[in-house]
């Protein structure tokens, strides 16, 4: 039997679990489910067609397929007023956006631009259906992709989700139901959608707008369950909110809120707490191995891209701000004429700077770094990634020791990168001069 996506991608630990292969398979031999790591993957049954390549041709991690920049060039390079930046990709304009209604803004991620855009697309009948993520009534699968057809339904689609989801069911829905659709997608998911659209005319004609989310890395579901267990003593959850905004805190120090299934126990843990999400996030614990093969931060294949405004002028405002990249004139006109949001054009260089740390980190993992300390730190992080995905509980002692090692290297790195005058002053103080 010829190789398919299972042999070429899944068995090589390069599957991100997007679900496109399942949706596009003509004989339905691939089914998405969680694997032992806590990440979706396709599981194969008998009946794969020998001459079929659809699963391979639609996979974002098959090296022979077009990369995101090649796909983006075909999509956007001939647009009027188009510009290009090596990291941002093709774009027409860049913006800072936030909702005018404060309560709406506080319930939304960042400035609420994504939720506002989805509402507008439905209300103005630009599309019939939104494909996005909602909380799922299943303790083993806390979130899922689903369809939204009204503003009231979209209330369930607020907020960020740091939990695996997959698109097979909603893409199958698109292929079976005529209409116009917008879909929210991480960079690798957006790439998979574009690859599938090249092979399937229904996906190509019906999905009108792809809304991308800036991404530095995904996490397996064990990221959420480990934090929940540390916070409320159980990983059997009724619900999770990943972006509880904290008044009088910087925008980046939001909280995760966990509610237990059996006793409704509620627990909050701030992003930057010593045992909080940042500690695991930045160490690459629970990061899928496929993320090591990706450098697409700004969702090159998406028509519009949303991100946090990690800039000095916005970071202290807990209410949140969204930075937006528009790659089409349609999106540009929509954003500039929406009544529910405040929109301000912002220099594209600032948009890049807001995510420069993410870009640098992904590039250092993928290409390596010229800096010996960064390479040493990343080598430790890759070991943490491996150990956490094998068995976090069993390897926790090793992981904690590696985390301490990272902190030591980071401390040394910060000291040697201080201005020389500061280093000399510290040296004189230590020597008693």
From TrEMBL:
Keywords, comma-separated and alphabetical: Iron, Iron-sulfur, Metal-binding
GO terms assigned for molecular function: iron-sulfur cluster binding; metal ion binding; oxidoreductase activity, acting on CH or CH2 groups, with an iron-sulfur protein as acceptor
SUPFAM superfamilies reported for this sequence: 4Fe-4S ferredoxins
Record-annotated 4Fe-4S ferredoxin-type domain positions: 6-35
Coiled coil spans: none
Highest taxon of the lineage: Bacteria
PANTHER family registered for this protein in UniProt: 7-HYDROXYMETHYL CHLOROPHYLL A REDUCTASE, CHLOROPLASTIC (PTHR31332:SF0)
Designated name of the protein: Coenzyme F420 hydrogenase/dehydrogenase, beta subunit C-terminal domain
Organism: Aliarcobacter butzleri
Phylogenetic classification of the source organism: Bacteria, Pseudomonadati, Campylobacterota, Epsilonproteobacteria, Campylobacterales
């Amino acid at each position: 039997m010829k190789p398919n996506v299972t042999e070429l991608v899944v068995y090589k630990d390069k599957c991100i679990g997007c679900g496109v292969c399942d949706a596009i398979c003509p004989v339905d031999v691939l089914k998405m489910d969680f694997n032992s790591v806590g990440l979706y993957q396709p599981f194969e049954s008998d009946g794969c067609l020998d001459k079929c390549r659809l699963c391979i041709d639609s996979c974002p991690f098959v090296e022979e397929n077009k990369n995101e920049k090649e796909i983006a060039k075909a999509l956007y390079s001939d647009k009027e007023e188009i510009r290009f930046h090596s990291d941002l990709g093709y774009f027409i304009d860049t913006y800072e956006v936030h909702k005018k209604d404060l309560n709406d803004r506080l319930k939304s991620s960042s400035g609420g631009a994504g939720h506002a855009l989805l509402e507008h697309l439905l209300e103005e009948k630009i599309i019939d259906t939104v494909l996005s993520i909602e909380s799922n009534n299943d303790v083993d699968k806390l979130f899922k992709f689903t369809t939204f057809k009204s503003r009231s339904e979209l209330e369930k689609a607020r907020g960020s989700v740091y939990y695996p989801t997959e698109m097979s069911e909603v893409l199958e829905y698109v292929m079976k139901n005529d209409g116009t659709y917008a879909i929210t997608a991480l960079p690798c998911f957006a790439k998979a959608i574009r690859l599938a659209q090249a092979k399937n005319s229904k996906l190509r004609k019906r999905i009108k707008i792809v809304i991308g989310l800036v991404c530095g890395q995904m996490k397996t579901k064990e990221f959420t369950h480990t934090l929940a267990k540390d916070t409320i003593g159980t990983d059997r959850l009724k619900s999770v909110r990943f972006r509880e905004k904290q008044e009088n805190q910087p925008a980046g120090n939001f909280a995760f809120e966990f509610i237990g299934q059996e006793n409704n126990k509620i627990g909050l843990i701030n992003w930057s707490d010593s045992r909080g999400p940042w500690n695991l996030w930045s160490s690459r614990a629970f990061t899928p191995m496929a993320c090591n093969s990706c450098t697409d931060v700004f969702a090159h294949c998406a028509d519009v891209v949303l991100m946090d405004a990690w800039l000095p002028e916005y970071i202290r405002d807990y209410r949140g701000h969204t930075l937006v990249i528009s790659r089409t004139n349609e999106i540009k006109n929509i954003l500039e004429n929406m009544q529910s949001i405040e929109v301000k054009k912002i220099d594209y260089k600032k948009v890049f700077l807001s995510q420069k740390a993410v870009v640098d980190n992904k590039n250092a993992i993928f290409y390596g770094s010229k800096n010996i300390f960064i390479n040493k730190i990343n080598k430790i992080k890759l070991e943490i990634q491996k150990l956490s995905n094998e068995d976090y509980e069993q390897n926790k002692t090793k992981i904690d020791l590696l985390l301490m090692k990272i902190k030591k290297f980071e401390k040394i790195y910060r000291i040697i990168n201080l201005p020389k005058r500061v280093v000399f002053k510290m040296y004189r103080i230590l020597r008693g001069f």
